[in-house]
Amino acid sequence: MAEEAGIGLDIGGTFTDAVLQWGGATYRAKSPTTPHDLGDGVMAACALLAEQVGRTLEQLLASVTRVTLGTTAVTNVLTSMTGRRVGLLTTAGFEDELGVAKGRRLNIDGWVAPPPPLVARADIRGVHERVDRDGVVLTPLHVDEVVAHARDLVAGGVEAIAVSYLWSQLNPEHERLTEQALAAEFPDLPVMCGGLLNPVMRGYERTTFAVLNAYTGGAFTGVDRVESRMRDLGLTAPLLVVNCAGGAMTMAAARELPLALVHSGPAAGVAASAGCAIEHGAANAVACDMGGTSFDVALVTDGTVNRTVRGEIFGIMTALAHVDVESIGAGGGSVGWIDSRGVLRVGPRSAGSSPGPACYGRGGSEPTITDALVVLGHIDAASFLGGQMQLDRDAAMRVCAGLGAQIGLDASEVAWGIRSIALDSMVRATRMAIARRGLDPRTHSLVSYGGCGSLFTADIAKQLHARQVIVPPTASVFSAYGAVAAPTRRERTISVGRMMPVDAALVAEDAAELVESVRADLEADGIPRQAQHLRLEADLRFRQQTSDLTVPLSSLTVDKECLRVLAEDFEAEYVRRYGRGALLLGAAVELVALRAVGEGEAPMAATHSRPVAAARLEVSASDSRKVRLERQGPAASVPVHRLDDLPVGAHLAGPACIDGRDTTIWVPSNATADLMTDRSLVLTFA
């Protein structure tokens, strides 16, 4: 391949998606995920790509210049609670902070429960050291005590150690001494220090950050096997992984910060959604991704992906900068079940890819959302994945009927109930994501992607009164599409903790140090300085508030004018988010933290041309099928259109199904769909 070529991969719970960009063209493929060996699913998907471009798999892998992988490896460890056994070294007197969890409690199936305990209380040791709020050492660290605690923990079976001392974000010297002592005593023992990894305010979140990184550090086995198999078949290009901020990072960088790979796949799709929304003139959008195991929602505001610098990771608050994704257990493989009250429920448990939904014919014995969609007629069992995979409608009917027998419903009513419950959950999650930021859904467009996403997003948009639904041409593999174009991204944060106005010279010194560190990180990742793009961000809040807002700085050169503009921008963002009535007039503003974010140039530009509405063409359906539109009564005959056969400018009215090679788009009543020049679909509502 003379041209630059890249492969993007997204290993989901049910399917492994692959996208190849080569010579201005985009090729895509899907293959069932193989949990026993992720490499099997990846190789199968890549082989399908190779076939499309007339190459062998070996020829394709030897020719590509970049492979980027979105992986659920870290997410799976946290979901299944199968991480390393972690020991924690913390300041004496604060051994119970992790268990208390700031009093935070979760609603788990109606029960109030604390966050999951990643570190047993018996594996926490207090170290007699102390630094005050100004970073001044009050009690020096004794290395002998640290080593003694570590020996005790390792002898007891601990596999990794997290270190988090009080006020270490201001003075990390004690953590640095601890790290050095443990490296000398236990060279192969993973050690994660909160103040060194992420020197931010809030001790609990800094501690959980260190613990989560230590806990998930062993999650790379499956990814290592994938890389090894690709290397054996001729891959010489770098293998990158998508991080939770939507950028790419090297495997070496990921090993230093494993938690950065949580929500890896969804983050790539959200980043691609921002570009898609901008192309369609929709600066404000909601990214809606429905895969095999979950439904993920994220916001794009003024063309920028909404990120958060701290948030909840599987019920645990931590200081991780990441794309702000709201996830619920409502994917294509989510299982329908009856609870102890005799009520039909859906998810969060998923059938995954093995055995998968009953209609896959692999031994699945419980009804899933996919089974329900087959029973209702939304999915054509004979043309799934363009006819490459035949679905067993009779099996879907049997499992739905079997579940319904427990509560006096027939198969069609159970299928209707499963879809309705899943849809209600998606509407609530989407409405909550928008409402949490004080935004109006009527000003937002929905970007719909994932294998099953477009069977629900039109109904979600109708209930929220959203502007429109945009279905990109690569919707079914959109996270893999986002991965192939993800730029290398690095960031570093430093705690400031000063009231505005601050000494510009001191902030400028901190900023220069941050920028230089990020530049060095990018250079280590192979990004030359001339290809680096950096920016500064600040976290600010009114005095005595507990939450802060992230605001970009106007320049990399920090001076009095830059800080004055920063304060004005903070107040403007506060008013936009919460309203002028919530503004605390005259209150002091605190500069909490400073952050430098660096990205390399996008490896390859998106190959989709800018979408333009063409001359409207009324089109006739190529077929029809029975789809149940109401809970009661017979199924209705609904027009079916083949997406690949539709001409640019095609205009059609609902109800209708549009069958693509690897997804189906549902156009409900009172909605219309238009095919744009880039072959994206735009759904609007009467």
From TrEMBL:
Residues 7-183 form the Hydantoinase/oxoprolinase N-terminal domain. It comes from the Bacteria. Coiled coil: none annotated. It comes from Streptomyces mexicanus. PANTHER family: 5-OXOPROLINASE RELATED, HYPOTHETICAL 5-OXOPROLINASE (EUROFUNG)-RELATED. It holds the Pfam family Hydant_A_C. One of its GO terms (biological process) is glutathione metabolic process. InterPro entries: ACX-like_C, ATPase_NBD, Hydant_A_N, Hydantoinase_A, Oxoprolinase-like. Residues 206-491 form the Hydantoinase A/oxoprolinase domain. One of its GO terms (cellular component) is cytosol. GO terms for molecular function: 5-oxoprolinase (ATP-hydrolyzing) activity. Residues 511-675 form the Acetophenone carboxylase-like C-terminal domain. This is Hydantoinase/oxoprolinase family protein.
